[in-house]
Amino acid sequence: MILSQYVKELKKIHMLSREEEEALWLQYKEQDDMDCRSKIIEHYQPLVFKIATGWRLNETVIMDMIQEGTVGLIEAVEKFDHQRGVAFSLYASQRIRGRILNYMEKEGKFGVASMDSPLSAGEDITLRDLLVDGTAGVSSQAEHNYLVAQVKNAMDRLPHNEQAVLSGVFLEDCEPKQLAENLDLSISHIYKLQKQGIRRIRGMLSKFMQHW
C-alpha cells in the first residue's frame, strides 16, 4: 500500500467518543473481546501516522515506520491498564515511538534522517537540540546512529510523568490544559515536568558526550 492510499483509509476511520472508547476498553480487558481490541487499534491508527510522519523521510521509509509503529500500538493496547487513569494516547505514543526508533536503528535508517529534523511535526526541538553542544563534528553514519540511540535511551530512563509530558508535547501536540487533565496535575506542574525532562535528558547526554 502506498502512502496516499493509506491516508485515504485513515479518513474512513470512525473516531470514538470518550464514552465509546471506555466501553471498548472495559469489554476488551474484562471479557477478552477481540472485536473491541480491533476497534481500539483502528481508532488509534492516526496516532501512528502522526508519529511516523514527524520525521521528514521518503514515502517508503515512512510506510515501514508506520508498519513498525502499528506493532508498537498493538503491544500498547495489550499491555495497557485502563484502570490507572492515564490517557492511553500518552502511553501508546511511547510504545509506538520506541518501536519505530528500534526499527530505524536496527535497519540503519537513521542515515536518511537529519539530526535537524523535528522530533515531531510542528515542533522546533530536534535531535540535535537534545544533544548538548559538540555534536557538529559527528560525521559517520555509525556515530550518527549511536548518538540517536543515546537520545532514545535517555528518553526511556525518564520518570513516568516526565515521559508522559514530553510524549504529549512532542508527539501529540497536546495542549498543557489537556495534559494536566489527563495526568491530574496542575498546568504549572506540566511546564515544570517538561523543563525537568529536557534538562534531565541533556544532563544524561552531557555525561555521555564528555567521553565521546
Automatic annotation (TrEMBL):
UniProt keyword annotation of DNA-binding present: yes
InterPro entries: RNA_pol_sigma-70_dom (IPR014284), RNA_pol_sigma70 (IPR000943), RNA_pol_sigma70_r2 (IPR007627), RNA_pol_sigma70_r4 (IPR007630), RNA_pol_sigma_r2 (IPR013325), RNA_pol_sigma_r3/r4-like (IPR013324)
Coiled coil: none
Top-level taxon: Bacteria
GO molecular function: DNA binding; sigma factor activity
Annotated signal peptide: none
One Pfam family, short name: Sigma70_r2
Keywords: DNA-binding, Sigma factor, Transcription, Transcription regulation
Alphabetical GO biological process terms: DNA-templated transcription initiation
Domain RNA polymerase sigma-70: 64-77
UniProt-recorded name of the protein: RNA polymerase sigma factor, sigma-70 family
Organism whose genome encodes this protein: Pelosinus fermentans B4
